[in-house]
Specification:
heterodimer, A: D-Maltodextrin-Binding Protein, domain 2, D-Maltodextrin-Binding Protein, domain 2, 17 helices, 13% strand, B: mainly alpha, 0% strand
Chain lengths: 416, 293
């Protein structure tokens, strides 16, 4: 929470600075400091297919509502594909044609801050900083500064499958020990205990186990720390699941669409780290139980945050900030998240989710962990992942796999 | 007796004695030859069949072999993929991008191939191998400079700007040059003696000889452009200017189901299949003659 305090302090300092600047007759630089009548121009917002917000048509009424308040700002919303997202942004930035506002996830923030192209946005949230969830603000901050105003959140926790629990005669596990305890009965009943998606980002696979073991990916000096005793314990736990066929072997190395996986077929006792709205698309909600995040030594769960960032290459940062402030206002945030079926990043924006399972899972929003706050977070994952797979397939011991990966990660970090 | 000596060959083409001798002992029963070919054909066609079958079973877990003969067929995935009002403009953009590229790449590659194969000029080999060396440069490295150049030319978000950077195709030029080298010089010299100029020689003598490789290259160039994603993604700035690959991708959520992905693949794949069927005769001949892999 220290980071959040840093953000609050920074916001106060920025607000004070802006006040001084405004008194001095400068034109400021935030939505709050500039009268709507004084701001005009055109901005471009790049969004992505998020739930129902997957077409330009979805955004038309939103822009109309915006223009009722800010008639002199033209907003063009372009829904871009997820694939090639980073290449497209980098190319556009290099060519001087980046959008003014862009939808970002946490691991994009450090990467683009390191390039020096993101505009700090603490001033946009300064008036109601307390309303934004701390976990969301932390996820979208880097080195004590907020670079993306949180709009949406998702949260994962343990999800159990009633049909498997009933046939095996066991209860929904919430700890590693409980999971191992019920595993033989589940296997005897012809099911898997859980599944480990070996090909997805480690944010959603190995890292939560690492955190639950009390470990961390990088230490405070920015060096690899995942190969410590906690990391070995986490990987050994997963290896035990793999060796005993408590998880399907195929999912360790093969990319599976959810509906094709063992979980999509209701053939696992529980998912340790899953977003219930995703599961509900393919599994009868009546067959699901949402429980608390899994605990090893500690309790930890993955979640993601979607935020709105502003490139400092924008010719119209004032208008961009007003647009971001508008979209993250309580009314618009609720409207967007209701349609997209996500949770809101404001504590005051609740109660719009109707499904009881999603409501149940929403209570764990404040504990989510999103990504390694490092500009090379994705490259680090690419280095570690093959070694995790090798250990799970029995080709390396957990210690050797993590130590080799750590050497590679430290070499990468040294190169910068 | 005379009749019996004639009857066995009546109405048949008789192979020369030398051929019969040479072929003696090499004849195989059709089954032994066809069986491996049929197996290879089945293995090759299976992914395409699976793609279509899976696309017709949205939201269903795929179990082999049961899912290969679906009991219930649904077109929901296709409705979802084709649901965009812009699908026709995306298809049009893809068609223009691909067809214009095929025509222009073939023209420029054949011209360059002719020059490098048959014309003698200072530094020919150095220039040629310098071009070929560019094949070693990963495409991603040239993406940003290419983007900036097209941007400076005012070509972003236009079909000509999309097509222009892809016209200088070194691989196509290399293959054309290798093919044209095998055309006898005497043919060109005879034309020149008859008074043909350079363009006439290129147009009337060289081009007709290159039909097989043209068909092969044309098919490949069409496939490269029809399936291209990254360059159209960065060059086309608004949804109405997307090509089909980018447009369909822009509608996909992060957790899109397999059937929807397969339906998109089928839609993108169909035109390439039709092109291949139409040019199959030339394509196979071109592959055989050029050794193209």
């Amino acid at each position: 929470m220290g980071l959040t305090k840093g953000i609050r302090t920074a916001a106060v300092l920025i607000a004070a600075a802006l006040l001084v600047t405004a008194c001095g007759g400068d034109d400021g630089g935030t939505g709050d400091q500039v009268s709507p009548d004084e701001v005009s121009g055109a901005i471009t917002f790049w969004s992505y297919p998020i739930g129902a917000a997957n077409t330009e048509q979805y955004w038309e009424p939103v822009v109309e509502r915006f223009n009722e308040q800010y008639p002199d700002i033209d907003v063009e919303v372009i829904v871009q594909p997820w694939d090639g997202r980073e290449e497209q942004l980098n190319t556009s930035l290099a060519g001087g044609l980046a959008p003014d506002v862009v939808y970002f996830n946490p691991d994009f923030v450090p990467k683009f801050v390191a390039q020096g192209v993101l505009e700090p946005v603490s001033d946009i949230v300064e008036d109601d900083l307390d309303d934004f969830r701390d976990s969301a603000l932390e996820a979208m901050s880097y080195e004590g500064e907020l670079y993306s105003v949180p709009l949406l959140m998702s949260v994962s926790s343990v999800i159990c499958f009633k049909n498997v629990l009933e046939e095996a005669g066991v209860d929904c596990p919430t700890t590693w020990d409980e999971a191992l305890e019920i595993a033989p009965a589940v296997k005897d009943a012809g099911y898997y205990l859980t599944q480990y998606p070996g090909t997805v980002t480690l944010n959603m696979s190995f890292y939560p186990y690492l955190l639950q073991a009390g470990g961390q990916v990088l230490d405070e000096n920015g060096q690899a720390a995942f190969n410590g005793p906690e990391g070995v314990e986490a990987l050994s736990f997963l290896r035990e699941l793999a060796d005993n066929d408590y998880v399907p072997q195929q999912s360790l190395t093969t990319s599976e669409d959810f509906e094709q996986s063992a979980a999509g077929r209701s053939e696992v006792a529980f998912l340790p780290n899953e977003i219930v709205s995703t599961v509900m698309r393919f599994v009868d909600p009546d067959n699901l139980i949402v429980s608390e995040p899994l605990t090893g030594v500690e309790q930890a769960n993955f979640g993601t945050v979607g935020g709105l960032s502003i490139f400092n290459t924008s010719d119209n940062i004032d208008a961009a900030k007003i647009w971001v402030e508008f979209l993250t206002s309580p009314e618009e945030m609720e409207s967007f998240n209701r349609d997209a079926e996500y949770s809101a990043a404001r504590e005051s924006v609740t109660g719009f989710l109707e499904d009881p399972l999603m409501v149940e899972q929403e209570q764990y929003l404040d504990t989510i962990w999103s990504a390694v706050p490092h500009e090379q977070a994705r490259e680090i994952i690419d280095l570690i992942k093959p070694h995790i797979q090798a250990a799970l397939l029995g080709r390396e011991t957990p210690e050797a796999a993590l130590n080799t990966a750590a050497d590679e990660v430290n070499a990468l970090l040294a190169r910068g | 007796m005379t009749t019996s000596m004639v009857e066995p060959t009546a109405g048949r083409r008789v192979r020369p004695a030398s051929a019969r001798v040479a072929g003696m002992g090499r004849r195989r029963r059709p089954g032994t030859m066809h069986l491996p070919l049929i197996l290879a054909a089945v293995v090759t066609a299976f992914p395409f069949y699976a793609m279509i079958v899976i696309s017709l079973q949205p939201g269903q877990p795929i179990d082999l072999p049961g899912s290969l003969i679906p009991s219930v067929i649904s077109y929901d995935s296709y409705r979802e993929v084709l649901g965009s009002s812009r699908i026709m403009s995306w298809a049009f953009n893809s068609a223009v991008y691909s067809l214009a590229s095929v025509v222009l790449v073939l023209v420029f590659a054949s011209m360059a191939g002719y020059a490098f194969a048959k014309k003698k000029f200072f530094g020919r080999e150095v220039i040629f191998w310098s071009f070929v060396a560019m094949l070693m440069v990963p495409y991603h490295l040239t993406l940003i400079p290419q983007f900036i150049i097209v941007s400076e030319m005012g070509g972003l978000n236009t079909l000509w700007g999309l097509t222009l950077p892809t016209l200088a195709n070194v691989q196509a030029m290399f293959l054309m040059r290798q093919f044209i080298r095998d055309i006898p010089d005497e043919l060109i010299e005879a034309s020149r003696i008859d008074g043909a100029g350079e363009f006439r020689i290129y147009w009337s003598i060289i081009l007709p000889q290159t039909k097989p490789i043209m068909a092969t290259l044309g098919t490949f160039v069409f496939l490269w452009h029809w399936n291209d994603f990254l360059w159209p993604l960065v060059a086309q700035r608004t949804p109405d200017m997307y090509v089909l690959t980018v447009g369909l991708n822009s509608m996909q959520q992060q957790d899109t189901v397999l059937a929807t992905t397969m339906a998109g693949a089928v839609i993108i794949f169909l035109p390439t299949l039709l092109i291949f069927i139409g040019l199959q005769r030339f394509f196979v001949r071109g592959v055989v003659m050029s050794g193209l892999k």
